[in-house]
Design goal:
495 residues; ten-stranded mixed sheet; eight-stranded antiparallel sheet; 11% helix
Length: 495
């Protein structure tokens, strides 16, 4: 968003576009990361935009769309239960439109919108009031772990609940076993923070590129693990799993990461969902008492997934998972005394897709004419330094270069991200993001207008504060237009 917000207006529609552009950059050009970090608790900054503060204020009808590989699906399911007039559709999708997102299958999203608008804007009875509150996709666990899935085998389900009505409860037991019984741990299990624990995490906000979690066997050796017995019957998980723990830590600042995995017959482990808890949020002074046993609950992200009979589950727990979460300020050791994992489950219904969607197949309008001058590419890699012990997840998303004849505009965008940590040192973590956007207006005329917007952002930390560097460079026809670098610090507050 740092780069997006800094892009220029379209000169064709604003004769004062240079003045408007400069004014925007001077008044609102700064990256928002500093502002967000200044609000490390759920304070008024966050509350003012949260519907959960007073759901009765949302009197209008709402159609909430989510995907199991999106970052915002939990709220779509919550709203279906808490808002007065809300329905939700949750597919296997990433952060993209339901008629083109990966993983598929896709639906006729535009037709669904038209039907909904007919009902609620035109007053035409299209039967939407009789639709179930939640329509959701149950993924069949037959796909091996990997960065990309084109279309996930499974089936649509529908009902008025946002989680399954049944529960499967597993108890953490000795010998890395997770059992359906009461035989808990006879001795505590401890695990320390590792800079390698989160290296196969996948992107928090997947856009459907090959960025899903990798095989968790690579990283589970750095976490505390428990395995279920092989399942006698198919297990259809629907909703948010909950991990309840009695645990302690050896530092005043600590976090807890837990992941639920599906162990496939070939040995691969797919990360189904995960949850995070900042233990400092449990106390009013934002400090954890080392050695004190806390009883906590961690809500994992909602999923709809079938683990087939004859296969098993894996639970992984650790005091952090970089880069999914920023590391605690000092090396932390987490000790677990007891715990249970509760999985919401359902019985599968026979649902006809044609009865719950206006159109089951995507139906798009005519494509905009675009000339591709450089094809888009996406690469996500992990490097593991054998000489310096540095581990780095790097992503390069080259959106390519495209020409739009209808507005005579050429756009060239490249995005790069790097998340680096050295060994198990939490203060060595570095996040780097760069964005470049080159827009040429009047591209095929004698007087093209060439604009460049380039941003670079670094985030580091020591034990007491976050260290931020944000750089913005803009150019007009190759000449510097507006440039500024912000170097700022924000105190850590129980993080």
């Amino acid at each position: 968003m740092f780069c997006w917000d800094a892009r220029p207006p379209q000169p064709q529609y604003n004769k004062d576009w240079q003045k408007v552009w400069r004014s925007r950059l001077e008044k609102a050009g700064e990256c928002l990361v500093k502002t967000w970090l200044e609000h490390q608790t759920y304070d008024d900054y966050w509350k003012h935009g949260s519907v959960t503060e007073d759901t009765s204020k949302v009197a209008i009808p709402v159609l909430a769309i989510g995907g199991w590989h999106d970052g915002y699906t939990n709220c779509a399911l919550r709203m279906a239960q808490t808002l007065p007039k809300c329905q939700a559709i949750v597919g296997p999708w990433s952060h993209n439109w339901p008629d083109e997102a990966r993983p598929g299958p896709n639906i006729g999203f535009m037709d669904e919108c038209l039907t909904w608008w007919d009902q609620h804007l035109k007053g035409v009875d299209r039967g939407y009031d009789q639709m179930p509150k939640v329509r959701w996709y149950l993924c069949n666990g037959v796909v091996p772990p990997g960065p990309s899935v084109v279309s996930w085998p499974g089936q649509w389900q529908a009902g008025d609940r946002s989680e399954g009505g049944d529960q499967q409860v597993y108890t953490l037991s000795d010998n890395h076993r997770m059992i359906q019984g009461n035989a808990g741990l006879t001795s505590p299990v401890s695990v320390s923070f590792s800079g390698s624990a989160g290296l196969t995490c996948g992107e928090w906000l997947s856009f459907g590129a090959p960025d899903l979690p990798g095989d968790q066997r690579v990283t589970s050796q750095f976490q505390a693990c428990w395995y279920s017995d092989v399942l006698e019957n198919d297990l259809h998980i629907y909703g948010q799993p909950v991990l309840s723990l009695d645990c302690e830590v050896d530092q005043q600042t600590a976090q807890l990461y837990c992941g639920l995995c599906h162990v496939l017959p070939g040995g691969g482990a797919r990360l189904l969902t995960y949850g995070l808890l900042n233990l400092n949020g449990l106390t009013s002074d934002r400090k954890v008492t080392p050695g004190k046993v806390y009883t906590v609950k961690v809500m994992l992200d909602a999923i709809g997934y079938t683990v087939p009979a004859g296969q098993s589950l894996q639970l992984v727990v650790s005091p952090g998972s970089f880069p999914t979460s920023w590391p605690s300020p000092v090396l932390t050791r987490l000790t677990l005394h007891s715990g249970t994992m509760t999985l919401p489950s359902v019985s599968v219904l026979k649902v006809q897709e044609e009865e719950i969607f206006t159109n089951t197949q995507p139906r798009l309008g005519p494509s905009k004419h675009v000339e591709v001058l450089r094809k888009a590419t996406f690469d996500r890699n992990l490097s593991y330094g054998l000489s310096d012990n540095a581990r780095c997840i790097s992503t390069k998303s080259d959106d390519g270069c495209k020409y739009y004849p209808d507005v005579d505009t050429e756009i060239d965008e490249v995005n790069e991200d790097r998340y680096t940590i050295t060994g198990d040192d939490p203060t060595s973590a570095v996040a780097f993001c760069s964005r470049s956007c080159l827009i040429t207006y009047q591209a095929h005329t004698d007087n093209p207008i060439k604009t460049e917007t380039i941003t670079s952002s670094w985030m580091k930390s020591d034990e007491n504060q976050f260290l931020l560097t944000n750089s913005l460079v803009t150019r007009l026809d190759g000449v510097d237009f507006f440039s500024k670098t912000w170097q700022e610090t924000v105190p850590r507050n129980g993080i």
